[in-house]
Amino acid sequence: MPCSSLVKSSEDNGALRNFKLNESTFLASLMPKKEIAADKFVEAHPEFDGRGVVIAIFVLAKYGMTERWNGKVDLVLEDMHPYSGVDPAAAGLQVTSDGKPKILDVLDCTGSGDIDTSTVVKADGDGSIRGASGASLVVNSSWNNPSGEWRVGYKLVYELFTNTLTSRLKKERRKRWDQKNQEAIADAVKDLADFDKKHSTVEDANLKRTREDLQNKVDFLKKQADSYDDKGPVIDAVVWHDGKLWRVALDTQSLEDDPECGKLANFTPLTNFRTERKFGIFSKLDACTFVANVYDEGKILSIVTDCSPHGTHVAGIASAFHPEHKCDLINMSYGEPTLLPDYGRFVDLVDEVVNKYRVIFVSSAGNNGPALSTVGAPGGTTSSIIGVGAYVSPAMAAGAHCVVEPPSEGLEYTWSSRGPTVDGDLGVCLSAPGGAVAPVPPWTLQRRMLMNGTSMSSPSACGGIALLVSAMKAEGISVSPYSVQKAFENTCIPVGGLPEDKLSTGQGLMQVDRAHEYIQKLQNVPSVCYKIKINQAGKLTPTSRGIYLREASHCHQCTEWTVQVEPKFHEDAGNLEQLVPFEECIELHSSKKEVVRAPEYLLLTHNGRSFNVVVDPSNLSDGLHYFEVYGIDCKAPWRGPLFRIPVTITKPKAVLNRPPLVSFSGMSFLPGHIERKYIEVPFGASWVEATMRSSGFDTARRFMIDAVQISPLRRPMKWESVVTFSCPSAKRFAFQVEAGRTMELAIAQFWSSGIGSHETTIVDVEIAFHGISINKEEVVLDGSEAPVRIDAQALLSSEKLVPAAILNKLRIPYRPIDAKMTALSADRDKLPSGKQTLALTLTYKFKLDDGAEIKPQIPLLNNRIYDNKFESQFYMISDSNKRVYAMGDVYPNSTKLSKGEYNLQLYLRHDNVQYLEKLKHLVLFVERKLEEKEVIRLSFYSQPDGPIMGNSSFKTSLLVPGEKEAFYVGPPTKDKLPKNSPEGSLLLGAISYGKVSFGAQEEGKNPEKNTVSYQILYQVPPTKLDEDKGKAFATPCTKSVSERLEEEVRDAKIKVFATLKQGTEEERAECEKLSISLKSEYPNYTPLLAKILESLLSQDLEDKILHNKEILRAADEVVNSIDRDELARYFFLKTDPEDEGFERTKKQMETTRDQLTEALYQKGLALVEIESLTQGENASALDSAEGARVVDRTDDHSAPDTDSQKDPFEENFKELRKWVDMKSSKFGTLLVVRERRSGRLGTALKVVNDMIQDDGEPPKKKLYELKLSLLDQIGWRHLVSYEKQWMHVRFPVSLPLF
């Protein structure tokens, strides 16, 4: 079948191997151009070097970018990286060959680099402002700021860096930190040694405490080295308006060793990149380039960095020049499998961009080959996108890949994804070079890097298309994605000689020069694409874009298909000028009429036309067959196929023998060769055990093995393995299969494996099907005591039935407690059509009573990106301090969280408010992974009463073909349910029924490790009623009515007193007046005195000494009102719980004890505060502790402990110590004060650290601030800097922006 009249022969592909590798050809092979005739085209047309064309490069869901191209199609695969970006400082990306800027704009399309700069500050008289991090920053006096308003924000710099760069910086920073820490340890050890040398025996209590303090310092420093976790420096950002533009400056001192470097005032201000095209570098240490963009009137600063060399590498392959910003092409080098092809929000937007705005969209087909139907979304599954496969030429193999002996001719990379799509479309449109040595960011510490993948072939194609578009603009030819795609597809050089090779390579290797010749002849032809819709005759659904006969039922009978061809014009096409006159007489051709029959002619008008196609595969042999029905313009046959209808038939081999075994012997392999075997998986099979034997070779051989099945409304079910045979041997595999559906087994020798050996590898494969059929794949235990019956049978051969089931996850449902709808900024989130993007933020609250590993689950939205109608979904988990513990997206990650309460915010976007409104009450599950001790292993029974009676246990059985076995799986006993599993929650796990013959022994015990397992659920029922609830002892009241009334009045007065405000002098005077009145009315009544003390603590007076003396007096009143001897006797003596009034007395005594200890605690704080203030100290040691009022007494190294010199603080401390654990989080602060005023800073630090570790609640900021002050007082500057960085992690000012 001719591809086009312009394609003379396939000898051009062979010509690509007629090269001689010298220095010149070697360097040229690193950036492939010859393969797509780009070099020849530019040589012939130097003025069509890409000028006038703008390319937008979408790099891996991280950044979008528009840049110029200088005509150099500078062009490697490690797979599709998760995130990326473009570095404007990379080699070759600054200017074009004529000196014009190459990169026009750099945009962060994800918001991951956003900094909240909504906070406005003013500079003081010295030109200083307070940064968002809390640092004092000096602004440059030469910066023009008419309003005087400086917007501030901050960012943890590691959030902007790649994992690779972060890892490098962490190593270098750790090395410097370790050096400083070792110096501090050496000093601490020396101090301890000097003390021991001076004091040979230590018996004095004070000396013991001093030595303990010295030892604590040594221990603390050693532990710091073990727990070191670098969260990275903090950079401050400042944004202001200079009267014309928004300006940005960063303070990066935390990245520098030299304190004079990185200062804000020394930063050269930036503005939005597209305005001045300037970028910055954080520091010489990281060498990381960034650009800045300001949005929403200065409220959002976007710092754009790259998150992988991948994006810069892609940009180096395809780039363009244009004085304006209208985009002509988009390159997108990432994707993934999809549930539905050509469907989803992203596809809708792509269709609009292509059909309405005439933008050419190019994308990678994927790196999931060699099996068929592995093309990824969106590149390989979307009709509006040109999907590109990855080709390797002999020159590329010899040069870029440095193989010993290149292949004799070009071929598709082994891993390049193949078509067709699950709905029959070809999937791969064309191929381009899929490897290159291209520019990478400076932070990689190299200029260029080898990468290969369809991520590289896509920009290679995009660069070639840019050359053609440049020529079209220069020659006045209207640019249309429809005509451009057709020009390239109809002028490709075929790769491979078989029809089915199109499923790998598309129409072949693109050729720029031939496409140019084609487009010149096409300029007077209307720009039309032909939309194909196909239904099996008599059926309305499903609708497909090709004919894909994969299952056995379709491959043995004749089928009829209705094909609808609809000409599609661009949205700006005129009715009278273009649509009405459109009429084409089309001659229909079939590549093999014996199998695929179609009408001979078709008259096509704007409204489209349908016709029938009959496919008869009954006489075809087993295996892969590919055919096409294509339409040729009768008046202009030179145009080649106007549309193609792919017909793919994978006729499977039936497995009729029992036991079901199938063998493929003597398969011969050379580098790049692929064997595809199609097998009808017999009914009753659920897993495969395969053996692969290799022979006949010397050097090692690498093979890629894929097994793929396709089911409706599911992503292709794929098992894959890469194996290396270092010598002739055998490998065994086991994987799950779906009964009754065709399985493709693709075995490929890697394209570069065995090159130079000239020996054929012989491979034998034996496949044995196994299976245990059951009556329900998902087992649901409804929460009752009843077990669930399971019917099992072996249809193929005898199998050992070994049921195993576990419940190891708890899933609790939550509804949002808050839902907020906002319109995003118009300058950033408004679609070209004028639609404003809206965001819905849902807030959920959940609590963990113990630390756990959790994962949020949103069944409606999870695990779908391109086949999802919502354009984004992100979540963020934080605590009450706003510390973020986890962030995620459509693929949620497991996160380990400590005990406590958490907020989860879910962020969804769409331009349709009605869709978002429907999600305001979206159910979200928090899935908790159970600890090993909590995992429930379910039991099996042979009788329905087994769970209750405790007998008739079922363990194992031998299933004989034709016989059915029934047994029961019992629910978990209620005492086995994990705590905190509320009613309505689900316990999830896995259940399996058999195991592979060569598996490990443990696999049978854990169904999740078995080759085949199914989901099992248990619905948590309502908890049983507490029979003891409400049975508390009722104590008869012995008081008279008047006494009870008097107590009620008294308590009411105290309650009113507790609610009085004290914000002003008048309010405080009224409060004091009432307290005096109440004290005279109810003298020595402890609850009243405790409320008066509480009232004083809430006041903030200027006269600190007087205030603390009042607190001291009030605390003494509380202490003196309590009979401490009686209280001590109560807690010392055991009381009979059955005594009358036990519960009431216990509650009273515990309340009195709490009032006593609180008074003693506050008295201690007040004593130290008065002491420090009277001594003229300037700072309080407890400014950071509960609002208390304490400062250091570093000059007093021995607080009085003797009876001859009473110390009020020490006496109070000893009294408090009788009643409470002084190391608790509540009272430990006073212990820190005691150690600190005694000069024992190491012990004080140890106490603070222990309090932090023992505190089960979210971390308290006061404790970390206290720790910081102690580190600063000791002089350990490296630890002060380390803790300050962590403060921004633990206690951020606000949550980060989505």
Automatic annotation (TrEMBL):
Q: Which domain of life is it from?
A: Eukaryota
Quick check: keyword Amino-acid biosynthesis in the entry?
no
Coiled coil stretches, renumbered: 204-231
Locate the compositionally biased regions of type Basic and acidic residues: 1189-1208
Q: Which organism is it from?
A: Escallonia rubra
The EC number(s) given in the record are 3.4.14.10
Catalytic activity annotation: Release of an N-terminal tripeptide from a polypeptide
Q: This protein is called what?
A: tripeptidyl-peptidase II
Enzymatic class = hydrolase
* Keywords from the named record: Aminopeptidase, Coiled coil, Hydrolase, Protease, Serine protease
